[in-house]
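Friendly challenge for the regulars: who can give me the structure tokens for this chain first? No prize, just bragging rights.
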Amino acid sequence: MNYANAFRVEDGYLTVRYDGYDSFANQFGHLFYKDKFSYYRLRIEYRFVGEQAKDGPGWATRNSGVMLHGQTVESMGLKQDFPISVEAQFLGGLGKGPRTTANLCTPGTNVEREGKLFTPHCLNSTSKTYDGDQWVRAEFLVRGSEGIEHFVEGSSVLKYERPQMGGGNVSGHDTAVKVDGKLLEEGTISLQSESHPVQFRKVELLNLVGCMDKKSAAYRDYFLKHDPKACR
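First reply, four minutes later:
Bragging rights claimed.
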């Protein structure tokens, strides 16, 4: 389902708009890719455009993101607000001071930093602020349950380890699905619809799971996790 045609292609860009909404009314959405991934590198180029949807929450102004290691669509509740996942948050500058992007937020999850459990909902990166409608390149190196690193315009801006289920900041979910403390080895990837129009001109994914046998024609030196079946 694509409510009110929120996700669409315009001028060659994947675009999120709200002109089909009478009021946003907390109708958050996510565009899921069909497969799950564990070790991968994801590159996204995005920009914020236009004005926020009517009645969009104040915190969601020039706010979007991509959900990593997320649960499947089928396992979500009918009225669930966000997938249990690790959110790489995109924020656009407001023209009045610093506002970092490629931050971390944690709907139904926690992470570890330097061997200690980190339970606050969000953690800012060290990126600079990107005001206006300029394009921003964000990248994410995901290594199963080992850790995740965020990059903006080629520079590392945030890293953390052992993503896992836990904490709050998610509602309407099946409590049997959320097993607190369970490490997230893999999951879905989804782009957010959070009430501010946003465009994506590039979404690229490099799977880092494959044949690591150097004698095989399927070997690639960038793989991080071995899959024996890929060598056949």
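The chain has a mean pLDDT of 96. Residues 40 and 207 are 5 Å apart (CA to CA). Your move, everyone else.
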